[in-house]
Design brief:
heterodimer, A: mainly beta, seven-stranded mixed β-sheet, four-stranded antiparallel β-sheet, 0% helix, globular, B: mainly beta, six-stranded mixed β-sheet
Chain lengths: 114, 114
């Protein structure tokens, strides 16, 4: 089945540690996205990538980093510089051909930092 | 500037009664419009999308939405609520500039009372 996988589902870290969230897709989509979701709020864009080896900052990129070495993979690193990292993180992908550009979402990773 | 407003942060309906979730948008471009649903601790699932064809769009699980350009609205409706409809609903605006721009509304939490 085609889709997006995120692992792990739940992640716990101590303050000051970097942590990497995995996102893999087998939909052959060019574009991939990382969002952060806080309770009672909509999604906010962290980073996006429209093609391999290229990515752009979203609205809240500070304290995060990404890489896009393969079309299928778009890992997100939450660094110790992120002041409030506890949140639900969602990865998405979309095709860049045709309209509209609906996004397909993974199941999410809930990160708790104490 | 582009924006999405969901007029109700929370809606509560009785099982078997109609559902109305309201969405208004502001966009300088011709947007594509979507409704997504999110069940607790899950990723987002596409309910329906507007592609500038028919203004009345039918989606999954009996939901539909009507695009009204004069009112810049894209309200989501369902004739009869089911308990399984209880979830968070997001209205999303998307358009293509030099990249694929997407804005999520803040979400509406739907409760269904038995």
């Amino acid at each position: 089945d085609g889709g997006i996988t995120q692992s792990p589902k739940y992640l716990f870290r101590k303050e000051g540690q970097n942590v990497t969230l995995s996102c893999e897709q087998n939909l052959n989509h060019d574009a991939m996205y990382w969002y952060r979701q806080d309770p009672g709020q909509g999604l906010r864009l962290i980073y996006y990538s429209q093609i391999v080896n290229d990515f752009q900052k979203g609205d809240i990129a500070e304290g995060y980093s990404v890489s896009r070495e393969k079309k299928e993979s778009f890992p997100l690193t939450v660094t110790s510089a992120q002041k409030n990292p506890t949140a639900f993180y969602l990865c998405a992908s979309s095709t860049r051909t045709g309209t509209p550009y609906e996004q397909y979402f993974g199941p999410g990773t809930r990160l708790t930092v104490t | 500037a582009q924006s999405v407003t969901q007029l109700d942060s929370h809606v509560s309906v009785s099982e078997g009664t109609p559902v109305l979730l309201r969405c208004n948008y502001s966009s300088s471009y011709s947007p594509s419009l979507f409704w997504y649903v999110q069940h607790p601790n899950k990723g987002l699932q596409l309910l329906l999308k507007y592609t500038s064809a028919a203004t009345l769009v039918k989606g999954i699980n009996g939901f539909e939405a009507e695009f009204k350009k004069s009112e810049t609205s894209f309200h989501l409706t369902k004739p009869s609520a089911h308990m399984s409809d209880a979830a968070e609903y997001f209205c999303v605006v998307s358009w293509k500039t030099s990249y694929d721009k997407v804005i999520f509304g803040p979400g509406t939490s739907l409760s269904v009372i038995p």
